[in-house]
Write a structure and sequence with these properties.
Elements lengths: L6 E5 L2 H5 L4 H12 L4 E5 L34 H13 L6 H12 L4 E3 L17 E4 L3 H4 L8 H10 L5 E4 L2 H11 L6 E3 L22 E4 L9 H14 L4 E4 L6 H9 L6 E3 L5 H10 L2 E4 L8 H8 L4 E4 L4 H5 L4 E3 L8 H9 L3 H15 L4 H16 L2
Parallel strand pairs: 1-2, 1-3, 4-5, 5-6, 7-8, 7-10, 8-9, 10-11, 11-12
Helix pairs in contact: 2-15, 8-13
């Protein structure tokens, strides 16, 4: 039962249908978990294989949904069996399961504010007079259209939804500026709420990826604006000078083009892929690294910076995008473009740190980390909800 003064917020299914794990879906779950008690939030999700939303009450693994019902493959009669199963267990909402469930809750109007987790405009006919909040994590599709050919839908939806939203949440001042410049949204409509760090480990698991030898940690995707190919080229002088140092990459395994690049630079033995499946392993990878490197030309915020901070890992950042805003003086910065770079020199600087110098950087990082927490972020978001509800 809702108390007088409570604000009821409805989140939808989109991010949790798109991602089994990933930054957008995790951010929404972290915010939800840290909202103050007067914000009564609900996810319009009943079945999902998203690992974060499954932590919440009332959400079942996707094995219950049509795609994975009984098995992943299609067989004659699978659809009809699932219809009957769904009627018996959930009252029936097949097909378009989570979409229909979200629409059902929208039509019920038992909420004060709607907060979609991505950019489909499906909800507009069912919203009535209720306000909605739109979160924009970055403007990558708009800034890099040739690298975002599959994101035309997102680009179009942002253009349509941004003017209609009561408030737009941006995850950095840099992203806010891009939203203003590209979508022409009034500045006063955009509120910046930084991310937090989801790591809570206090013990480092035992993990060995390079024996006792030092390694540089690269996390996540490597294509396009991530500038991974440029990183390989500009890091080569340092790697050639220190053959015992390797670069550990998470995410997808290396493709043929990347392997050819390693061979051309004569560093093929120094780039290693490591599959990481748990926060404990990620935490340990950060903690034992010579440094974490972020080579991107553009990011909306850069949560791995906070993860490295939490794990006491020196941070090496491309001096670009939102990185100076997020990290301040709590990082080592390098310059990198098509023509030249001081990356090898900065890698040499970190490699040569005395223990005193290393601890001085880590001390700055720990202090900087105190600026960011999901509790702070959730309270800021709650203030936005309260303000909208009281208009």
């Amino acid at each position: 039962m809702n108390k007088v003064g409570d604000v009821r917020v409805l989140y939808d299914y989109q991010a949790f249908q798109m991602q089994k794990f990933g930054g957008v879906s995790r951010c929404f779950v972290e915010l939800y978990k840290h909202l103050p008690k007067d914000i009564r939030a609900q996810f319009a999700v009943r079945e999902s294989d998203n690992i974060y939303v499954q932590e919440l009450d009332g959400v079942h693994p996707i094995g219950y949904a049509y795609e994975n019902f009984i098995c992943r493959n299609y067989f004659p009669g699978k659809g009809m069996l699932h219809v009957w199963y769904d009627k018996l267990t959930h009252g029936g909402y097949y097909p378009n399961g989570e979409l229909n469930y979200s629409i059902k809750l929208l039509e019920g109007q038992e909420f004060d504010i709607f907060h979609p987790t991505f950019f489909s405009n499906y909800f507009l006919p069912y919203l009535g007079k209720k306000p909605f909040v739109l979160t924009i994590h970055d403007m990558i599709p708009e800034l890099y259209p040739k690298q975002s050919l599959n994101d035309k839908f997102q680009i179009q939806m942002k253009k349509e939804l941004a003017p209609l939203a009561s408030v737009i949440v941006a995850v950095s001042e840099n992203t806010k500026k891009d939203v203003i410049d590209i979508l022409h949204v009034p500045e006063e409509k955009i509120h910046v709420i930084y991310h937090g760090c989801s790591f809570s480990q206090t013990n480092v698991s035992r993990i060995s990826v390079n024996g006792q030898n030092p390694y540089i940690l690269y996390v996540g995707q490597r294509k396009g604006y991530k500038r991974f190919d440029m990183f390989v080229q500009h890091a080569t002088p340092f790697l050639n000078a220190h053959p015992d140092v390797v670069v550990i990459c998470t995410g997808k395994d290396f493709d043929e083009q990347e392997r050819m690049l390693f061979a051309e630079c004569h560093v093929q033995s120094q780039f290693k892929h490591y599959w990481v499946s748990t926060d404990d392993d990620f935490f340990s990878l950060y903690h034992h690294a010579l440094c974490f490197i972020y080579t991107s030309e553009y990011e909306g915020f850069g949560i791995p910076i906070l993860e490295a901070y939490q794990a006491d890992c020196p941070v090496l950042l491309n001096h670009a995008s939102c990185f100076p805003e997020v990290a301040g003086d709590a990082a080592v910065y390098f310059h990198m473009d098509d023509k030249d770079s001081d990356l090898s020199e900065k890698l040499e600087t970190i490699f040569s740190y005395s223990e005193k110098e290393r601890q001085a950087l880590l001390s700055k990082q720990r202090k900087r980390l105190t600026r960011y927490s999901w509790k702070k972020s959730a309270e800021q978001l709650a203030n936005i909800y309260r303000e909208i509800a009281n208009r």
